[in-house]
Design a protein that fits this description.
Layout lengths: L1 E4 L10 E4 L9 E10 L2 H7 L16 E9 L11 E5 L8 E5 L4 E2 L6 H5 L2 H14 L7 E4 L5 H12 L3 E6 L2 H9 L4 E4 L6 H7 L5 E6 L5 H7 L1 E9 L12 H7 L2 E4 L2 H7 L1 H16 L7 E6 L3 H9 L6 E5 L2
Parallel strand pairs: 8-9, 8-11, 9-10, 11-12, 12-13, 14-15
Antiparallel strand pairs: 1-2, 3-4, 3-6, 3-15, 4-5, 5-7
Helix pairs in contact: 3-4, 3-10, 9-10
The protein binds NADP nicotinamide-adenine-dinucleotide phosphate (NAP).
Length: 325
């Protein structure tokens, strides 16, 4: 089978496409024919050696997939060959087949394409955990989302709206803001001029946002700390801008606010039952038409480098998906 491999840390162009032996499912595992692989910023970090956990070389990048069941390992029940499934797998999605633990798989609902399903494990999983378990977002509260047309950001806009919040979407271009508005944002802010704090205050009667979802980091984070409301929660999601900001802890005191860490991968491994409950709710929202995961760009497997560059160069809107077959 074909696989795109990372054999040494480097840019997307340093990956290589090779023929490798197909994996075989052991007891409790399922062999999946990968149809689509949804990309996430962590894939970009992983191939460069900048992610918090690194698989041994050689590895295929690609943290989440959707496809069809090709074969069942011993003792697997509840799935049959040909079933449409999706899963978050950490890495390995840039390959025509992967082996996945049966308990990590989920069936793809009829209402969803394989491309959509390949891109929801990380984005909606992270954003729902962040808003529900970590921020305890309440209906009627104001939610500010940075990077609001990116993968996790757009999911946060849709989920925040579905949870009854007033959503302010912030992003760097008019095109991205239009996408966030279509996904349900009530208000939009263009921060391409570097200004965020005053624009948020202007939209919140000077109070600031109750919950701030920040996957961007960098210089905007300091402004988030200055436009969060009394008792607010600032969710630390990631650092797509590159720099890891410092927290001025006097502001935590002055606002009686919280800076809240979100590490979805670690939480879903520690609390698999709660994570599965969250996903049931996410899929219900999709079936009710209250969320509609956006695939913004699709690439064939041979164009893996261009697909990764789309994220690295800040061009991604919604999900970037690689069609593996
Ligand atoms: N905590 C967790 O459990 C968890 C889980 C998944 C992902 N993450 C993190 O969340 C962040 C976003 O991931 P994603 O997959 O949603 O990525 P994405 O689709 O590429 O979105 C990232 C957004 O960040 C903004 N951005 C600002 N400066 C950027 C730069 N120099 N390069 C690229 N983007 C830049 C862009 O929006 P604008 O152009 O509008 O600013 C972009 O839409 C990453 O840091 C990732 O590691 C965290």
């Amino acid at each position: 089978m074909k696989a795109v491999l990372c054999k040494a840390f480097g840019p997307p162009e340093s990956l290589v496409m090779e023929d490798v032996p197909a994996p075989e499912p052991r007891a409790g595992e399922v062999l999946v024919d990968v149809h689509a692989c949804g990309l996430n910023f962590p894939d970009v970090l992983m191939i460069q050696g900048k992610y918090q956990s690194q698989p041994p070389f050689p590895f295929a990048p690609g943290g989440e997939i959707a496809g069809t069941v090709a074969a069942l390992g011993e003792g697997v029940e509840g799935y049959a060959v040909g079933d449409r499934v999706f899963a978050g797998i950490g890495f390995g999605g840039f390959a025509e087949q992967v082996v996945v633990k049966a308990r990590a798989l989920k069936p793809v609902p009829d209402t969803m394409t394989l491309q959509q399903a390949s891109g929801i494990s990380t984005t909606y999983g992270t954003s729902y955990y962040a808003l529900k378990q970590r921020a305890d977002l309440k209906a009627g509260e104001t939610l500010l989302v940075l990077g609001a047309a990116g993968g996790v950001g757009l999911a946060a806009v849709e989920l925040g709206k579905a949870m009854g919040a007033r959503v302010i979407a912030a992003a760097s271009t008019a095109e991205k803001l239009e996408v966030a508005r279509k996904a349900g944002a009530d208000e939009v802010i263009d921060y391409s001029d570097g200004e965020l704090k005053e624009k948020v205050k202007a939209l919140t009667d000077g109070k600031g946002a109750d919950v701030i979802y920040d996957p961007v980091g960098g210089e905007l984070f300091d402004q988030c700390m200055r436009c969060v409301n009394w008792y607010g929660r600032v969710l630390v999601i990631g650092f797509a801008a590159g720099d890891i900001p410092k927290v001025p802890i006097n502001l935590i005191l002055l606002k009686s606010c919280q800076v809240v860490g979100v590490f979805y991968g670690a939480w879903s491994a520690r609390c698999p039952d709660e994570a599965a409950d969250n996903f049931r709710e996410i899929l219900e929202l999709q079936q009710q038409g209250r969320i509609d995961p956006l695939v913004g760009a699709e690439y064939p497997l041979a164009e893996y480098a261009e697909a990764l560059r789309c994220l690295m160069e800040r061009r991604a809107i919604g999900k970037v998906v690689v069609n593996v077959r």
